[in-house]
Amino acid sequence: MATKTPKNPQKKHDGRRKNLIDNKNLKSPRTGIRKWVYRFFVAIIWFLILLVPVTIYYAHDLPDISEITQPKGGSTVMVMDRSGGLLASYGDVYGDWLEFDDIPAVLVQAVIATEDRRFFDHGGFDIRGFMRAMIKNITTGRMVEGGSTISQQLAKNLFLSADKTLKRKIQELLFSAWLEMNFSKEEILTYYFNRVYFGSGAYGIDAAARIFFGHNARELSLIEAAMLAGVLKGPALYSPLRDLERSYRRMGDVLDNMVEAGFIQKSVAEKTKAENVQIVDKQTGGDERYFSDWIVERAASLIGRVNEPVIIYTTLMPDIQDKANKALQRIMDQEALTHKASQAALVSLDMDGGVRAMVGGTDYTVSQYNRAAQAQRQPGSAFKLFIYLAAFERGLSPDDVMRDSPVILKGWQPKNYSGEYLGQVTLREAFVRSLNTVAVKLAERINRKNVIEMARRLGLTTPIVAE
């Protein structure tokens, strides 16, 4: 039995589709702007749905936020040497609690202009400030500006650790939102100024003013307020007790920020930059304080803030420390003028990496800036360790042979310290003699990126480029 095939089945389907669309009881498909508006609202709804469980997950183990209104007790830290002797002791310093009306206006303006210019306009998280900081950091290729608001900084300093994790960041946002909902802007600033850390054991602006300038915070001048605001970016770097010249430069940046924010005139800023700040002359101890300061700061990043006494046992050896101090002073007396050097630093390590002695400068009472731990210098031949280790990890052995001869890479021609070339040498001999040409050729052979990866694995954090 033969069957009939429609002459044009596609035309039949098109006609049916037209009838369906023309039916008044059916809606036509969303097109154009209607489609995008629909998708936007669907995305918002799903975002809100997902936000609830995420918030619950990260909020279930938040610390007790009622502590913000409670006075904080200090803690004592004792740093011991290898034999158990006391190297140095530290105690938190808290000054008078200042109400908002007692805080100098110039300090409030300096901090807002530098740390959070839209503080009075946002609700705890400043998306504009965050995007501005992110763009600036990307365009400059380095971290030059943070995106955290004052509320976020207060939440982090009071309740959270310094860990750079997603959990800590989300909890920081939750805390800052809680602060904004429960306190006025003036109250948040009051807690911030009375709790923020300024270095040298000083918590709060009154303690910082007394330690740095020798008077209470109510009497802060414009230049002192700008200097305190500048310290907040990094107390270890910008404290006037650590490095006065660096602190002055940072203070100039703060004054420029105040001009941009409209708080002061440019002429006032320039006049203030020319003034001198009277810094308290504190005899802070011997040169072992370079080491103990470094240890305390590293310990704080590991254990966070504590309210009970802490004893830190270290690997420092007092007799080696004394010899290191004398050796550094002897070298400075003999060679400082020849090399036009004004400072020097020294670190002595055990085979396991323990620090036996550390001298961060010629005189701790003059400058507390630790050139041994904080200054960045070219590693020189010490970096060859990572090259050889990466090479051995990729199958080469100390008995493999390479040629010590001239080499040119894109116009760069490294040479050996002796100016001579030895020809065929084993990697063992090249390492012992610290031959530069062999190290360069070896890095090229195994790929520089593998060398950088090895350096990162062993703890180097400073920027390293492959080119």
TrEMBL record:
<dbReference type="InterPro" id="IPR012338">
    <property type="entry name" value="Beta-lactam/transpept-like"/>
</dbReference>
<keyword id="KW-0472">Membrane</keyword>
<dbReference type="GO" id="GO:0008658">
    <property type="term" value="F:penicillin binding"/>
</dbReference>
<dbReference type="InterPro" id="IPR001264">
    <property type="entry name" value="Glyco_trans_51"/>
</dbReference>
<keyword id="KW-0573">Peptidoglycan synthesis</keyword>
<keyword id="KW-0645">Protease</keyword>
<dbReference type="GO" id="GO:0006508">
    <property type="term" value="P:proteolysis"/>
</dbReference>
<dbReference type="GO" id="GO:0009252">
    <property type="term" value="P:peptidoglycan biosynthetic process"/>
</dbReference>
<dbReference type="Pfam" id="PF00912">
    <property type="entry name" value="Transgly"/>
</dbReference>
<keyword id="KW-0328">Glycosyltransferase</keyword>
<dbReference type="GO" id="GO:0008955">
    <property type="term" value="F:peptidoglycan glycosyltransferase activity"/>
</dbReference>
<protein>
    <recommendedName>
        <fullName>peptidoglycan glycosyltransferase</fullName>
        <ecNumber>2.4.99.28</ecNumber>
    </recommendedName>
</protein>
<feature type="region of interest" description="Disordered">
    <location>
        <begin position="1"/>
        <end position="23"/>
    </location>
</feature>
<keyword id="KW-1133">Transmembrane helix</keyword>
<keyword id="KW-0378">Hydrolase</keyword>
<dbReference type="GO" id="GO:0071555">
    <property type="term" value="P:cell wall organization"/>
</dbReference>
<keyword id="KW-0808">Transferase</keyword>
<dbReference type="InterPro" id="IPR023346">
    <property type="entry name" value="Lysozyme-like_dom_sf"/>
</dbReference>
<feature type="transmembrane region" description="Helical">
    <location>
        <begin position="36"/>
        <end position="59"/>
    </location>
</feature>
<keyword id="KW-0133">Cell shape</keyword>
<dbReference type="Pfam" id="PF00905">
    <property type="entry name" value="Transpeptidase"/>
</dbReference>
<keyword id="KW-0511">Multifunctional enzyme</keyword>
<dbReference type="GO" id="GO:0004180">
    <property type="term" value="F:carboxypeptidase activity"/>
</dbReference>
<dbReference type="InterPro" id="IPR001460">
    <property type="entry name" value="PCN-bd_Tpept"/>
</dbReference>
<dbReference type="InterPro" id="IPR050396">
    <property type="entry name" value="Glycosyltr_51/Transpeptidase"/>
</dbReference>
<dbReference type="GO" id="GO:0030288">
    <property type="term" value="C:outer membrane-bounded periplasmic space"/>
</dbReference>
<keyword id="KW-0812">Transmembrane</keyword>
<dbReference type="InterPro" id="IPR036950">
    <property type="entry name" value="PBP_transglycosylase"/>
</dbReference>
<feature type="domain" description="Glycosyl transferase family 51">
    <location>
        <begin position="89"/>
        <end position="258"/>
    </location>
</feature>
<feature type="domain" description="Penicillin-binding protein transpeptidase">
    <location>
        <begin position="352"/>
        <end position="462"/>
    </location>
</feature>
<keyword id="KW-0121">Carboxypeptidase</keyword>
<dbReference type="GO" id="GO:0008360">
    <property type="term" value="P:regulation of cell shape"/>
</dbReference>
<keyword id="KW-0961">Cell wall biogenesis/degradation</keyword>
